[in-house]
Amino acid sequence: MILYVVTHGACTCKMLHDVSIHFALISVFPVTMDQNDKISDMSLGAVVCLVSFFIPPPFINNLKLLNVRIANHTILGSSTTLKCTFDLEGEHLYSVKWYKNGDEFFRYLPKSKPNIQVFEKSGIYIDIDKSNSTEVVLKSLELSSSGTYRCEVSAEAPSFQTVFQDRDMITVEEIPWISGLQHEYNVGETVNANCTSSKMEIHAQLVWYINNEKANSTVEQGPYYKKYFAGSGQLVTTVLGLSFTVTDGHYKNGEIYLKCAARLSTHYLLYSDEKIIRFTKRPPTESIISNQVKQAKMQENSISVQNTPNIIHMVCVLVFCLRNNRKMLVAY
């Protein structure tokens, strides 16, 4: 004798024009009965999906996904919180699921014990003690933590409504950094520096700023790319050079302010260290001062040389006069 045990669940497929296909899942378990009508064997049978196109009428409560908040960019080794806010509108919560690049890694089922289930996924390390139906805390972020994250919320029967929303997150090794600078520059000297992004899965678009204004492309050099192979993936470091001659116009209160940023998306810039690079205008160097002294001495020497003929002439006249006076005295 075979007895069929039936269980059910729900899932939703998003279609065009905001129409959802709701699946009523019926799992059929064939159960083998012995002569004493006792269960002797159970195995998982086929899963039958009954598909129904269902648009809830206005008078039925509608589950609403209010907001999904995920940091656009995170730093390697840090932690971040994924937030999913929803309004059941009178419905009963069936599940909250989180996905990364289409693979489920977290599930919250309020009627299950335990109510949190975690699935292994590259770059995902969950702090279960701090996670719940509306928040998932990721710790020890890796570069592979980058990806598209989805929060999916489902209601209980009979509506089986499901709503979801996607957000992108990029994890970088560190903020861009500036190298190659001296401590001080004088007017007329050339500034040469590099802005370097950390290793990441995308080509970062770097931008230089001089005194908080975007630098002209004529003073930028590059960008240049360096590729690294990490496991089955590839990481890229971007470098953008800066070269310009210092003028009086560059100084703001005796200083020049430089910074760079990595544009990782349309509306997001990851800036270099908030401590803006500064240059202090210094007095002339010793070599310049010594040259000025030499020029002054040369001018003095030239003046003395130019006056030498006049002095010799005066001496000759004086000697001539003395001789004439002596001859006149002898004659007397």
UniProtKB/TrEMBL annotation:
It comes from the Eukaryota. SUPFAM superfamilies: Immunoglobulin (SSF48726). InterPro entries: Ig-like_dom, Ig-like_dom_sf, Ig-like_fold, Ig_V-set. Residues 57-161 form the Ig-like domain. Transmembrane segments: none annotated. PANTHER family: BEAT PROTEIN, BEATEN PATH IIIA, ISOFORM D-RELATED. This is Ig-like domain-containing protein. It comes from Aphis glycines (Soybean aphid).
